Amino acid sequence: DDPFTKWSSRWDFLLESMPSAQWFSILNALVIVLLLSGMVAMFLLRPLHKDIARYNQIDSGKDAQEEFGWKLVHGDIFRPPRKGMLLSVFVGSGVQVFIMTLITLIFACLGFLSPANRGALMTCALVFYVCLGTPAGYVSSRIY
């Protein structure tokens, strides 16, 4: 037998020995995400439920003018940010990197980028990064 393993079959012995380990990992991660999301929802719904019950008890117009609870957040949400230009630049760059990563991963999963061709992944990522400068600029300008 040849002592060297071919590049394309280097993981075969692990995948054949543990066929259900992948599904167990995916299921485990899904359960953890659902449990943590449920905990966060419980923490957010309890004060929201109290505020809604308190809003429903208000009868007079004088009490209705007082803002409390979640109504206080209204003023902070709809005010413009102090450094709007910096925010728009970061959002545009984030969109550029996110879409570049997504397209590169899709190409790698479809088999267009072979691990045997060294540097193909980085070249693909750089080409997509450069090409996605225009959509990033558009998103930045729309945010600003």
Automatic annotation (TrEMBL):
User: Where does the record say this protein resides?
Assistant: Membrane
Pfam families this protein is in?
Answer: EMP70
Provide this UniProt record's keywords sorted from A to Z.
Membrane, Signal, Transmembrane, Transmembrane helix
**Which Gene Ontology cellular component terms are annotated?**
membrane
GO biological-process terms attached to the record? protein localization to membrane
Q: How does it sit in the membrane?
A: Multi-pass membrane protein
**InterPro entries listed in its UniProt record:** EMP70, MFS_trans_sf
Keyword Membrane recorded: yes
Keyword Metal-binding attached: no
- The highest taxon in the source lineage is Eukaryota
TM stretches of this protein: 20-45, 86-113, 119-139
Name the protein family.
Answer: Belongs to the nonaspanin (TM9SF) (TC 9.A.2) family.
The name of this protein is Transmembrane 9 superfamily member
